[in-house]
Specification:
By secondary structure, the chain is of the alpha+beta class. The chain is built from ten helices and 16 strands.
Length: 471
């Protein structure tokens, strides 16, 4: 379950309630894209986790202690330089988008903003000065990656480009009525169409909340208007009722800022804090989902590898069946040598008596017209030796493939009961020792594209100035 704008709004409200005015006592970077700020407030410490991971970007208070690297990364050192000892003045959500501004007053009186952008693979954590200049980012973005919006020290911070949608917190009842009439002309669309329209028309409405509103309205646009206004009035007023969502086995499968009609009521459990339910989900359900995904991906690769081995073995056994006729090449060579007078110069074939046949039948033997009788016989002996050698080599290969197939079948059986991702890596290593690759192939390395590739631009640096000249 992803962080959408409603969840982010609930998080902002909770952070303002619980840690606004607190002092930054510690800053750590436990992983390349995760930051943990320790905020001292109300006589206790609060750990604020901010993650820019593509598959699970988020921000919330956490109770989980994470190990930190011995040497702090550069961005961690930058935040310590500017924010350590400062105070959190407040948390603001930008235009109901998935962007939070954490406002800090540094110990030297400077005002700074830590921008948290929760946007999938484009998520980022950016420190911005009071003048709007970028001081640093957990994921720097150069011109070669984004020509509209560079995220580099010294550049002016620009918000992500607007999507030209309506802010649901600012829409007036009459405006919403007009939008609904224009879209559906007083008709009763189905829930799928309603959800699609909501998602495409309003800022911050995720597929989840679009389906929720469509389900609550049951295809009635009048009812949708009432449900829409009531829901976003609650968001505007900070009225949230966080729930942790479980499946029928009691396992956590999601969370949200309020109960949902999309899950059975008995599977939704109220909690007083959005940060609490987010922390539970991301530290229980998410690791389990990641394990299940990793295990299924590993099992799929094993099954494909196993099927490939079976096809290869079947093919080699068919070839071995063909090699069983190799003895005939030797016999034909000997027949040619025993009846040289029947081999005419430049003949493409010859009629020879088959002494190896009980009946002594006459057979037609193919010849190479460029060769004499002895050379044609040698050509058949060569085919015999090659087939014999190939058969021996193929038998060894079949035995090797069957051994590897047996190993893969054993690993497949073990993998079905895996309970930790580390076990997958251990099984991969077992297979890799036998030359069986089951991991993702690394992309071939290559040189990064020049910053202005495709443009006739010359960059000149002089002192603190960078001059770009179009040629």
């Amino acid at each position: 379950m992803n962080f959408d704008s409603i969840i982010l709004s609930a998080v902002a409200a909770e952070l303002n309630s619980r840690i606004k005015g607190g002092r930054v006592d510690g800053i750590h970077q436990p992983s390349p894209l995760d930051m943990v700020l320790t905020i001292r407030h109300g006589g206790g410490n609060h750990s604020l986790l901010i993650s820019a991971e593509a598959d699970s970007p988020r921000i919330h208070l956490t109770s989980v202690k994470r190990p930190n690297p011995k040497t702090p990364p550069g961005f961690c050192m930058l935040l310590r330089k500017y924010l350590a000892g400062g105070r959190l003045e407040g948390v603001e959500q930008v235009d109901f988008d998935r962007i939070l501004h954490l406002k800090f007053l540094a110990y030297d009186g400077e005002r700074l903003t830590l921008v948290v952008e929760i946007m999938g693979k484009h998520s980022n954590i950016i420190l911005v000065s009071a003048e709007g200049k970028i001081l640093g980012a957990v994921k720097p973005v150069g011109r070669s990656k984004n020509r509209y919006r560079e995220i580099l020290p010294g550049r002016q911070y620009l918000s992500p480009p607007p999507l030209n949608k309506v802010n649901p917190l600012a829409v007036r009842p009459e405006e919403l009525s007009h939008m609904l009439h224009e879209a559906f002309e007083g008709g009763c669309p189905d829930e799928k169409r309603l959800a699609s329209w909501l998602k495409d028309s309003f800022t911050g409405i995720s597929p989840f909340i679009a389906r929720e509103l469509a389900k609550r309205s049951e295809g009635d646009t009048g009812r949708l208007k009432d449900e829409f206004l009531a829901l976003f009035s609650g968001v505007r007023e900070g009225e949230f009722l966080p729930v942790i969502i479980s499946d029928d086995k009691g396992r956590t499968v999601g969370f949200y800022a309020f109960p949902s009609l999309q899950y059975p009521e008995e599977n939704q459990h109220e909690r007083p804090s959005i940060c609490t339910v987010a922390d539970i989900y991301f530290n229980t359900a998410l690791p389990r989902e990641e394990l299940e995904d990793a295990r299924e991906e590993f099992l799929s690769r094993l099954r494909r590898e196993m099927e490939g081995r079976k096809r290869s073995i079947d093919s080699m056994k068919e070839t071995l069946q063909e090699y069983q006729g190799a003895e005939r090449f030797k016999e034909i060579g000997e027949l040619i040598l025993s009846q040289p007078s029947l081999i005419q110069p430049e003949a493409e074939s010859a009629e020879l008596t088959d002494y190896y046949s009980p009946e002594g039948n006459t057979i037609t033997v193919s010849l190479d017209p460029r060769l004499n009788a002895a050379e044609n016989a040698e050509a058949y002996f060569k085919k015999f030796r090659k087939a014999l050698s190939g058969a021996e080599s193929l038998k060894e290969q079949v035995l090797r493939e069957e051994g590897e197939l047996g190993l893969i079948e054993k690993v497949l059986k073990s993998a079905e009961s895996i309970t930790k991702t580390e076990q997958i890596e251990e099984l991969r290593k077992v297979l890799l020792e036998r030359g069986i690759q089951t991991g993702k192939q690394e992309a071939a390395g290559g040189k990064a594209k020049p910053e202005f590739e495709g443009y006739r631009i010359q960059k000149i640096t002089s002192g603190n100035w960078e001059i770009l000249v179009g040629l």
